[in-house]
Design brief:
InterPro entries: Kinase-like_dom_sf, Prot_kinase_dom
Protein name: Protein kinase domain-containing protein
GO molecular function: ATP binding; protein serine/threonine kinase activity
Oligomer: single chain
Structural class: mainly alpha
Radius of gyration: 15 Å
Shape: globular
Keywords: ATP-binding, Kinase, Nucleotide-binding, Serine/threonine-protein kinase, Transferase
Distance between the termini: 38 Å
Strand content: under 5%
Domain Protein kinase: 1-106
Helix content: 40-55%
């Protein structure tokens, strides 16, 4: 059995065992928090996709989006601008930039 098959089954099993209503507690690191978590409007899979976008951004640049801001300023920015996030640098592929943009768009 390939590793991909195991990961796919684990992912599918995880998705089928999730709740459909949004969760409301606030957890996370400010630079990776989705707008809906900061605004306490409930969160679900969209918030996880946001965090994936932030992680890919950090992998490409060495820093999370908005790392030049302190944590509280970043939280206020994300909550107020609802996804108006920085783009990947020009040296990154268009595919990577598009992926991150889609993850960080609300």
């Amino acid at each position: 059995d390939s590793g991909r098959g195991c990961i796919l089954r684990l992912t599918c099993r995880s998705l089928t065992n999730t709740h459909s209503e949004p969760l409301r507690s606030v957890h996370g690191t400010p630079y990776w928090m989705a707008p809906e978590i900061i605004n306490e409007s409930g969160y679900g899979r969209k918030s996880d996709i946001w965090s994936i976008g932030c992680t890919v951004f950090e992998m490409a640049t060495g820093k999370p989006p908005l790392a030049s801001m302190d944590r509280m300023a970043a939280m206020f920015y994300i909550g107020a601008h609802r996804g108006l996030m920085p783009s990947l640098p020009q040296h990154c592929s268009k595919t990577a930039a598009d992926f991150v943009h889609l993850c960080l768009t609300r």
